[in-house]
Write a structure and sequence with these properties.
7 strands, Spore Coat Polysaccharide Biosynthesis Protein SpsA, Chain A, alpha/beta, 2 domains, 16 helices
Length: 406
Amino acid sequence: MSQPSHFKNIFQDDKVCVIIPTFNNKKKVVGVIEDVKKYCSNIIVVNDGSTDQITDSLNLIDGIKLITYQKNKGKGFAIRQGFKMALELGFDYAITIDADGQHFADDLKVFADKLKEEPNALIIGSRNIESEGMPSKNTFANKFSNFWFWVETGDKLPDTQSGFRLYPIKFYKKTRFFTNKYEFEVEVLVHSAWSGIKIIPIPIKVDYPEDRVTHFRPLPDFTRISLLNTCLVLITFLYIVPRNAFRYLTRNKFVDIIKDQITAHNESPAKISFALGFGVFMGIAPIWGFQMLVAAFLAHFMRLNKILVLAASNISLPPVVPFLIYFSYKTGGMLVNNPEELTKETLVYLKQQILEGNFYSTFQEFGYSIFQYVVGALVFGLAMGVGVGVISWLILKISAAFKRKI
């Protein structure tokens, strides 16, 4: 079995430090520091405005870097200050460990081993949240946070609230964080996922002694976390999902995307066909400027393949737009008994107005019925979506049957 000194060398060579934020943890923090020192020589302690006379004790501890300020500003602010100093000192990674004694310093060995396997990942210590002894408010908060992290990133983690983490701070040099308290640990996870940083959970031990001091306040902290998640969800669907879809679509040709997504996911022909048909319907739907956004949002909650939906919604490419407008308006005319036709010149002009975001007002200025167009677009889009879905299903079934024969 490797000795603690062995891991000191690993952390030194890999430019890893340990950050310990503390606020009024006088009974535990000194012991936590001494335990960590067995495994890592580079320790940054952030005294987040403690009022329990711990400052004098911290000043007497050799071999640590100490950050102290008078006013308590929150765990997130303390961690950010630790990141700042760590980067200034030339570290590439920072492990955060709580000062209340719930974590075990010997789990640093697990982080060291995983770092060798995944040098560019954020590694998060995963507790057994169903284990006996975990406070019920912690269990609820964790499940709550896990759910919203999945909504915001599409990734699932077993313990998004764990404070025992290894951060690849070398990737955060230009990242701007905004939160200062417990919600920071949610923000940094989501930002990392959005940036393409892999997040890996590893099992850790945990203890909740009776004399443990916690500063988590359910009402105000849940409120802040909820507000943060509201903002992150909005950013997810207004920017991140369209951005990722655009990057994917511009890197690949349409047919290659369809083939890739059909072969990469073990989905039934019915589900694939429904995603394609739904995407076509959304591409024709009369919500110009918001089609991809709404398509991504609905696909997420309908558990459809978002890439297939977004790829199919690109039926509304500029060269095709005049035809979509024409057939939508024509379909609407049959339903509202209005035979009025669109001229070729008007269609070309309306296409330009769509690209400039002025479609609806211009459409009405020409004397055409918005109601007729909207009704026609919905019906025409539904018909096209059903048609594409049925044809896709038939092709997939025939293809599967042909492969079985071969």
